[in-house]
Structure formats: C-alpha cells, structure tokens
Amino acid sequence: MKITSPSLDSTLTVSVTILIHLRPFTPQKSPKITEILDQLTISPDSMIFLHNEFRNCNQTPFCKRARSRKPGACPLVAIDVSISNGDLVAKLIPKEKSEENTENGENPIKPLVLTISAYQDGIMRLKIDEDQNLSPRKKRFEVPDVIVPDFVNKKLWLQRLKEEENEEGIFSVVYLSDGYEGVIRRDPFEVFVRESGKNGKKVLSLNSNGLFDFEQLRDKKEENEEWEERFRSHTDTRPYGPQSISFDVSFYDADFVYGIPEHATSLALKPTRGPGVEDSEPYRLFNLDVFEYIHDSPFGLYGSIPFMVSHGKSKGSSGFFWLNAAEMQIDVMGPGWNNESVLMLPSDQKRVDTLWMSEAGVVDAFFFIGPGPKDVVRQYTSVTGKSALPQLFATAYHQCRWNYRDEEDVYNVDSKFDEHDIPYDVLWLDIEHTDGKKYFTWDRMLFPNPEEMQNKLAAKGRRMVTIVDPHIKRDESYYIHKEASEKGYYVKDATGKDFDGWCWPGSSSYLDMVNPEIRSWWAEKFSCKNYVGSTPSLYIWNDMNEPSVFNGPEKINFIRLLIMNLILIEILEVMLISARDLSVVTMPRDALHYGDVEHRELHNAYGYYFHMATADGLVKRGDGKDRPFVLSRAFFPGSQRYGAVWTGDNSAEWDHLRVSVPMILTLGLTGISFSGADVGGFFGNPDTELLVRWYQLGAYYPFFRAHAHHDTKRREPWLFGIDLVQERNTELMKEAIHVRYMLLPYFYTLFREANASGIPVARPLWMEFPADEKTFSNDEAFMVGNSLLVQGIFTQRAKHVSVYLPGEQPWYDMKTGTAYEGGATHKLTVLEDSIPAFQRAGTIIPRKDRFRRSSTQMENDPYTLVIALNSSMAAEGELYVDDGKSFEFQQGAFIHRRFTFSNGKLTSSKMGTATGGNNKFASECTVERIILLGLSPAPKNALVKPANQKVDVEWGPLLLRGGKGKSFLTIRKPNVRIADDWTIKLS
Amino acid sequence: MNTIRLHNLLFFGCIFLLIHGITRSATSAPLKDSLLGVSPEDEIYYKGFSSSSAIKCKDGSKKFNKSQLNDDFCDCPDGSDEPGTSACPSGKFYCKNIGHAPVILYSSRVNDGICDCCDGSDEYDGKTKCVNTCWEAGRVAREKLKKKIATYQEGVTIRRQEIEQAKLGIANEEGELLKLKDQEKILKELVEKLKERKEQIEKAEEKERLQKEKEEKERKEAEEPKENEIKAEVSESMQNDNIGTVDQPPQDSAEDHHESANEPELSDHSVEDRLPNDGVEVNEGPVQKTEQLGEESTFDDKTGLDTGNQDDNIAEDTESLSREELGRRVASRWTGEKTEQHEEFDASIDKDHQNPDETPNETNDEENNGYVSEYDDHKYDDDDSEDQVDDFGGEDHYDSSSSQTPESDDESDLSDITGTSGSWLEKIQKTVKSIFQAVNLFQTPVNITEAAHVRKEYDESSAKLSKIQSRISSLRQKLKQDFGPEKEFYSFYGQCFESKQNKYVYKVCPFKEASQVEGYSTTRLGSWEKFEDSYRIMQFLNGDKCWNGPDRSIKVKLRCGLKNELTDVDEPSRCEYLALLSTPALCLDSRLKELQDKLESLNKDQPGGHDEL
Fold first, then answer.
1. Quick check: ipTM above 0.95?
2. Which residues of A lie closer than 8 Å to B, measured between beta carbons?
C-alpha cells in the first residue's frame, strides 16, 4: 500500500497561504479559515485517498453486522413452494415461529416472497422481497430501466415442479435449460443451479452457508441509536430504519472469481476474508469521486457493477448478478474461511464462497450457468444489454487535456498534429470552456466562435467533445437552473428542499435523472438549437456523475475544492460550518428522488441515468440518425448501452499503467466493452518513458484517449521532439497511435461483435483459452479480440519481459513476424519502439496501412489482410464495415465478411446471418495487400476468382513503417473488393 | 524535419513548368503523369528510368520498375516509388502551387478529401473538387512578405546601429573597469591608513574616558554614599554600555553625542559597530550580497598569491617607518613624488588587506555604503551624471524607477566615481595628507575636532571605496554576459520590457529576471538562464513554485521588429509561460536576404499565362 503523494500535505499548506493571500480584503475571515485548514492539514492522510478516510466496513453498520454473522445463522425456511404464472414461488419464514416475537418485539419478521424464473440461454432469476399483500411501510426500490425490454420475452414458462428428498432435506426442482436445473431446498432455505439430475453437480448457489439476512422496513417506535446513523458527525436520518440485505453465494469448481468493478485491483479477485487475510475490507461498490486513487485497493471507485464471474479449469465459468443500486460490499472468502476445509472430502466440489451485502433494495439476482466465459458474458448482456456500436471516429485516438484553453489553443493543437503527421479524431474541452461552469454555455472570451471552431475541425473529419456534468449551478440567470428549479426537477434533501451541494460551479443542485420526464427534458437540451454554440460534430462527456459533491457526507473532497482554485473563502466559510456536519463526496443517503426513493436506494445508478439521458439527447439531436458518443465516469449495469467509460482520475505512475489492464478487462467482462484509462495518467507528470509505454499500451485500449490534469505539464506527443534524442519519443508515440489507426478495421469489427454478442473487445486470456490454467490470473497481458495478444511493459527501463503465450498454436510477433511457440513462457528482449504484441496463428487480421489525419479520411483506403497460418496451414477472420456513424446497420446496411484460408486458398464470404449485409451499404474498398505468415512452401502466383486474374506474389515487409525486419509472402495488389465474394488461390 | 513547407525549392521551377501541364485541373486523371508529386530536386532521381528499366529505392532497400512508379502500391518503405499517391506512409508529395509557394505534403494528404495544395493537385481521384486558389493566396502571401521585408530593411539598420553602440559601450566599460581597478587599489591603501589612525585616536580617547570615569567615581564615592544615587549611577553606566563600544570621551553622555554629531557619518558609524550586518539586510538583496562577496574573495586570493612571498620582508620595512613618513609616502603617491617607493607601498597595503581580522570590517564598509548612498547621491549628482547615461537611456530610466533592484545603487553610484575621478581622488588625497600632517596623535587630551575630522575622512573614503568595488563588481557582472554573437543584445542589459495582459503586467528583464505583477503582488516567473535556439529564445528558469505544479519558467521568443516590444504573453502549460518580444536585434541581414530571395522567386514564378485567370 502506498501513499500516492506524500508531498500533498506540504503543498496544501502552501496553497492555503495563497488562498488567504487571494483575498486580503477579508482579513477578518482568515483566522477562521486558517483554523479549519490547520485542522485539515494536521492529518496528512486526510488530504489524499486512504481507506481510513472513507468509511470502511466497520463504520458501516449493515456491513459490520453482516460480516459478523456466523454461518448457519439464517433461520429462514421455504414454505408453500409452488408454480404460479410460470414462476416458482415460495414464502420464507423463520423456522421457529416463536422466535419472531421474542427477538424482534414489535417488529415481527413477516414472511418474505421468493420467486424463481427461468430465461432462455441458461439464466435463472431469483427475487426475494417483502410481501406486498402485507402492506409494508413502502415498496422497496427496484432499479428500473436496466433490464433490456427484450429480456422479458425470453422468459420460460415454468410448468412443472419436481420434488426430491434426501438426507439433506426436501428439494423442489425446475427446468432451467438443457442440462441445468434450478433448485430450492426448503430447510434450511437454499437456492442453487445444478447440472441436471439428482446428483448433478452444483454450479452456483445462494445461502449455502446460511448467511442470508433481510432487514424488513419498520416503523420508528422510539428514539434509539440504531435508527439514525452517524458518520463523522454527519447524521443519516434513515427514516425507514435499517433495511439491508445480505447473503452468501457460492461458485462451484471455480479457481477464481472476477468482476464487480470498479476497483483498482487485480483481475482475479483476491480473498478478503479467511486464513492469511488480515485487516482487509470487502470489495465496496459505491460510486465515488475518489481523488488520486491508489492501486491495489478494494475501495470502490466511480462505478459499480454487482456482477461476478467465476472460472475454473474443470467446469468453466458461471456468473452471478445482483441488480441492486444501493451501497454494496462483497467479500470473497479464502479457502478455510469457515474452518470447513478441514472437513471437506476429496469428493466435495471445490468452490469459492462470497458474501454479498447491500444497504437497501430487494433481492433481484441472476444466475448465469455459462459454461464458457463468453457464454456468461453473453448471458449477462442479454439481461443488461449489449454494448452500443460506437461511431468509427470514437474508436480512434482522442486528445484531451484539462484544459485546451481557447480557440487559439485548439487550433494550435489541431495543426500540430497535422504538422507532425499524427492522426487524431477528437479534441476535448474540459470544464474551463464554459461560462462559470454552467454547462451548455461557452466562455465567450475564450471561445467567441465555437461553431466556427467545430466546423473547422469537422472539415478535417475531426470531432470535438465538451463536458456536461450533472451538477447545475444555482444561478438564477442560468436557464437550466431556472427551468429545473421551477419545474421541481432537482433531487431533494431529507427536508424536501432542493438539495444544494458544492461542485465546480460552487453551489449546485442535481437533476433527478431517475425520472423519465426529467431525462427527456434533459435530452432536449442537446439539440443544436438549445445548446447554443454546438454543431452536429460535437459530442459529450459526462464527468462527476457519481454524483460528485465536494462537501458530501463521505468526505470533504477538499483537494477538489482546492483545485477549483480555491474557491475562495466564501466556500470555505460554508465548509467551515459544514465540515464537521457533512461527510461526503457524494449526495447524502437520505436525499429524496422521484417516487420518494431515497438516494441510498439508487445511489450507484444515478450516473447511469444521467449517462442515459445524455446519450438519448444526442440521438434526438441527430434525429435518430447519428450514433451518440458520450463518455461517462460513473457506470452501472447497462451503461454499455449508452457509451464509453474511462477509469477516472488515475496518476502518472507505472503502477497505474499496470492496473489499467485488469480494470479494463474487468469492465469488459462485466459488459462494458468500450473503456480505457487516461493515457499518460491524469495526475502528475509522467516521464517520457512512462508516457511512451502508456501510448503503446493505450493504443490497444478499447477507448484510447490521452488526458492530463490542469496542473501538469503539457504532454502532447510533439512536445518531446526538441532534440534528436527527444525526437525519438515523439516518433514512438506517433508510431503507437499509428498502430491503432492501422488496426481500426479490426477494432471496429470487434466493436460490432461486442454489439451483437456482448463479448468484449479487450478480453482476459482465459476468455480465449478457458482451459489453460496459466492464464487464469494473468492480468499483464490481454487479448484484443481473439487474434491479438498484447503484453504491457510496466517497469522503467525494462530489459526483458516474460510473456506467456497460451494455446497450442504459434504466435507471430506483430512487428517482426517472428513466430513463437504457444503454451510456453518466452523471455523476450524489451524494445523501446513497441510493447510485445502477437497475432495468434490461425487468424486473419484486417488492417488499413495508410495513415491519414483522422479515421474519416481512411474511409476509401484499401485494406491489408494479415493471415497467420496455423499448423494446418489454415486461418480465418472477419471484417465488419458500415457507414461508421448511423443506425442503418441495424437495418442491415453493412458489409460483414468472413475470410477463410485453407488448402492454399483464401475465400471471402458473407457472414452467414439472415440480417447480414444486404445491399444497403456499398463500399468500393479493395484489398491491396495480403501478407501470409507461416506459409510454406512459397507460391509463385495467385489466381483471383471470379475475375480469373493472376496477381503477383512477392516478398514484402510486414509493416510499411518502422519494420526493417524480415520479408514475408505478400500477394501484391489483388485489388478485390471487400464487398464481393471472391477466392484467391495460391499456386 | 517536420515542417512541410519548404521555401527554397523554386530554383527548378522553370524547368519543371515545361514538363508539367496539368497543374490546374485538379480532377484530371493524374497517374498519366508518372512524376506526379515529384519535387524538382528529385527529378534527376527519377530520370534513372530513362537509362534502365528499374531503379533502386532511395534507401537502397529494393528495386522497382517504371510500372511500379506511382502505381498506388507501396514498394519502397521510404516511399520513393510513390511520390504521387498515399500508398507509402512515409512518402512525400510535392505540389507546385504555381502562383504561390510550392509545398511538400505528407503522402497521407493525397486524395484524402481535403484540399491541401492551393493548386488542388493533391486531390485527383475525382471524389473531391478543389479550386485553384494559388494566385489569390499567393498575392496575399506576397503582400505579407513585402511588409515583412520592409520591416526587416528598417530593422537591419537599427540593428547595425545598436551593434555599433554596443561595441562602443563595451569598450567604454572595459576601459572604465581597468581604471576603477587601479583606483580601487589606491583607495584601499588610503582607507587602511585612515583606519589605523582612527583607531589610534579612539584608543587614546578610551584611555582618557576611563581616566575620567575613574576620577569621577572617586569623587562621587567620596561625596555621596547614599544607596539611591549609587543605583542611578549603575543604571547610567549600563546605559552607556548598551550604546556600545563607541569611544566617547567620558564627558560626553549619549545624548550629547547625538546632539553634537548631527552628521550622518557619525551616527552611521555607531550603528555599524553595533550591528555590522544591518546595512546589508536592509539595502541589498541576498543574491547580490553573495556575488559581491564571492568576487571580492577571489580577488583577495589572487592578490595573496601574487604578493605572498614578499610580504614578510616588506612588512618589516613598513613597520620601521614612522607614522609621519607613512603619511607622506601615501600622499606622494598621488603628487607624483618619489615614485620609486611605489612598489614598497603597494605591497604593504596588500599585506594589510590580507589580514583576516580585517575582512569582516571591509565587507562591512562596503555594504554600509548602501546605507549612506542616498546622502552621497545627492552630493554628487549634480557634478557628473550626464556623460555616462546618454548611451543607454533605458538603463538609467529603469534603474531610477525600480528602487529594490540591487543594480540601482551601483549604477547611480557610478556617476560620482567615473566622471571626474581624478579630481575627487586628489581631493581625498590632499585631505589625508593634511590629516597626517596636522594631527598630533600622542597628544592628550585628544583634539576633538581633529578626531572628528579623521573619522569623517575615513567614512567618506571607505564609502567611496565600497562604491568603486560595487561598481567593479557590477561591471564585471555585466561584461561577462552573453550579448550575442554581434553583441546585438547589449542594450537589453538593465532594460525591462513590460506587457499588460488583462489584470497582469508581465515584466521581462533580460539577463536578470521575469515577473508577473498583479497590483502589489509580484510573482517571479524565472531568473535569467540563457539564450536558446541560436539567440531566438530567452529562457528564464526557477521562478516561484507553483502549487501542485513545476517552478515557474518563461520563454521569450524573439522576432524582428522595429522596437523592443513585449506581446502575447501566454501560459500554454501550467506555470510555463511563453512571450513574444519584437526587437531589431533579430532583424538579421541573412534573413532579409532570404525573404527577398523568396519574394523574388515568387514574383518570378508568376507565369505569363496566369493572366487568363
């Protein structure tokens, strides 16, 4: 564990002086300010993110209670198990009826209602809630608009209930899918999925350890300590009392569990409890604006996806998803956590136990049976939706900085890219472009002609992105605020007034995006008419949508405040009053949303709804013809449908470069394909080597954006080209960006795959090699699609790197074409000019080798196909092409080709689905070059059919730039159109 | 080489015109012209095809035949087979842009749907139509160029004048430095002697005072045995002690002293003795202080080395001389008598100078100068301030307006030293002579008038000395600066350039520092570091620290202009500033020539046929 910046403390002191300096005319305030600042500076760790600063499990009553419960503590049994309306239903009641009244006094445990449903493709859904017929105090919150509407249609109508009995009790069994069954044991109550048959192996189970607990809503009878909750003297009124839910989930035959972003941790989740785990926190899911997060911490970051995937050598994968938007804490138990392992028989199934705890909501859980990793992801995304297909430009390189200050700066950066022949597609404007942090406005001093600016960039095929955050400046002259407050569109505080928190603009309120009406109103704001100064080539960035509130209850985000340029004494005055009262970087839990939903119940989904509303706004703006692009920091299950996310405010450190890989892989695994980390690291100044390495790795992130903090040195790629030595660094960054542009056709094809199947663009190795144990905990390397393996370089001046190449087929170095044996670890010399990347034998990768200013100009450029042959001299690959921007592809306006090579013949055929490529989309693009890796013996000629035309086969380079390596067989200018069926026969 | 515009490629323009016929029709099928995109310089390379069917790629990696030239497939990694297409990522495309300047493009611009060449020749695939705008663009460019040339022409003249003046100025200052060094030497001796004399007087006075005190005490003890009065007495004497070691005759109470000694020299003296460093703290920046000390000490060392051997012998000689003799010799040094004794004298003074005990004193004197300088300035201002400053008016102006800069003292001091140096030296020297002759040291009681006289002379002379020394140091400081290859930046020394941008005033003082002023608060943007990029950038580093950022720094880009003018201060990266300074110093002849050539070639390039348009 390491403290990110020990110097922060002292710098803060410095800034305090500045602060007081700023306003010499209010000297009477200074002593007070100094006092509070002194208090804040006394503990240096209060200035940076550390666990003990945010609240930990022990400070969170529901977590503490759940964690201290002993296995088998759950008294509930299932009764009245029956089939009703195609579902299995049952009631859960305490085993000993008499216990009710003695233990709970005037709040007796009422029966809970349990429902099990089955869906196509191996999905079981379990719901447990209070019985609405017994009129609970209120309806507990169920997260709306996450499950895709189509999912409902996949429901299987259960008809039959099979009863079984053995020494462990009575079981009710329902059909789930071929080979799998859903089972409920009555006493003690347990729900699980097993392989079909009485002795079928368990796949997933709930409450096998008897840790289930469901705190029912109660009436407040008298003042007691438990009712209200205090954290750092912030009082959470908890008008409904404790209402948490917790239970254990077991994954059978699993070696590891993965998922539940967002944490800066390893890909395979480390145990948080059990022998050898000391002083550990559960993985927390609570969306927070964490300032300078540290890597390798279970602390929750900006987004939450309560979806876990298990994987093991013998069984494969399974998944568990709990649709719940309240704060969640999840323990991964190490073997022997309950001293059970001693008792385990060799015949017992190996398993990973987990404990899930949530502050509120209901049980709405999904069991995914797998059995392959891709199956689990497919199943999960059939519930929460597939990734939206981004516009082509969005898959290219993005240039961002807080802030490109003015139009001149924008033009200068834009022209520098051209001057250095470095492509880029999108230039971003951070908060400073606005008039006083009022979104949808422009600082007209700095940006007098925003339309003209966007149009000038658009003329080069480039887009711009502006930031739009959810905090609305409370300024009567601001139209958004005026309308929102008049219409009552803001989230309310516990007393029913508009919640008023501090964020970039100072005093701000937050739109209640859970309400569809408000989302629709918000979406209208993005029309070119309403968003003055916007053009159709402008897209949006949603930051701070956790939501971030600087003076919220968890912790004063003091640093943020300082960065706001110390906003001045007035704010500190407020802070002074509130510092000891409030506790957060987000909204208080008792704030109220639409439908009297407490913020605690939907906190983790707030950013999701905001993201959704913004994306809908862009769709509306384009009259449904332009795919939206919205980047969000907060996320929730389903966010993949609305745009990209990034891993938030990382730091320019090697550790952050390293952790970006498991973070992105975890996001992909949990449905969010389109993600990336800030290249270069947001905070701090990367040295050139780190920056170069980051570009080299970032070029393979699904979302490739360089970004930098306000206080950092400029780091656009050409700034490292002062002398000859430095010039080299610029070249290297340019080269890395070129790699991305070269691979755009491949990436875009993968984005389409994610859009169709949910399979992410960046994949853990074990997703492609599920039987290869050596890949299970590897999170330094990853697959881009099924054809490319990329290994990051995460240390300074690395000389050698060990790369494990899985599988039985060889791999070809992407740069040199050198073949490496599969299923082996190779110690490779690390080169300065690239990170190791390999094409898997048996695959075909489509490329575009001509470099342009942006992806827009590459539209008509010809393709290169790189065919890496496996030991049977065969290979296959895909290419997906559409107009890159509209929704026409949904009506079949695309070209989707399968390339297969076997028996010395390359065949291009239409991908075989009914919706696939009708003639609505046309392209004149041709293949100009086909490179064959691993072919022997060397052919002389190639015959193109149906044209019946002979083309040359010669020796050529693998890469046109930078590659002084070997020559490879190259089919020269076959000039076949990618839209057509054709074959090329070598002879 | 990242710039795409090459300006000097027009020499072959005429030849090329003959070959080339399709420039204006941007949409015509291009590949008929196999030499599309070839720069005139490269034509000779492609002529290789006239003698053989295949030629080597420029990098020698491969051969390609004529059918592969511009066939939209990259055969040479360096792009030499595809000058006119986008096939090779490292290729370059040449557009002639007749009527304007030719341009070399990255091959990535060819047929990318964007018109990059004003003649439209980069877009020939029929998908994009480009209008030929070369004539219009060329005209604008030529107008601009003409204006620029006009500026340069005038600027070059100003620059020449400045260089002349710089040379003169430097020569003057070098001369002055030599002269001052001589004077320093002489004055040092003098001061030493005066000091010795002063100390003797003080010793005598002290003796007298003690004697008197003793007498007084005895008297009092006899008269007043009462306790009260004893107490009072004690307190009084303590008071005296507090006032310090100032040698007052016993009859002088502290008050008396102040009354009688209205002259600043005396009160200064007392302050100096008590708090030897005060003057430094108040008047001079710490940096300046160390520099001066540094210089001084190296100087000392040198002298020490030079004279070390002789010291002992001569010391004895000197000691054997009577005080009067010494005085006479000192005096004769300037009246031109008995020059043969010169050497001896020098040596003795060197020896004294080396005495480690005296070093702090000496430093002290020098710094004390700052304290009294105001007074001195008034005294000497009228005499001789004009002749020096004519050459660099800016310097004078700047100095007088900024009181806190260390150089200001030095510079204003220089007026009284350099101008009529002979006369003041003579004056001092005569006075000293008269002192040595008149004062009878061993007479008791001390003649008060004479003692005051000695003190005054001592103070004045040492002030003078320190002024000279500080002037020497500042001259050295100045002359060691890099004023550019032709000393064209000489006039920048001591000057500051200001620019107001919104609420900030940016102040750039070459060879010194740069700052940002907002109201009463000043932020240092950096201290002078050096010229960069062949004297086209001035770099200032290590300014005030930025919170959460680097130390501030500023680069000032220089460009030709008719007067020194600071514009466009910017902060492209956090706390890293960039400014533009127009100055005649950058109006280089060679550049003027380049511009003229360029204009000429542009004009020459106007084809007669262009009238059609």
1. no
2. 11, 14-15, 18, 21, 409, 419-421, 423, 459-461, 563, 685, 710-714, 718, 721, 738, 849-853, 856-857, 860-861, 928-929, 956-957, 960-961, 963-964, 972-973
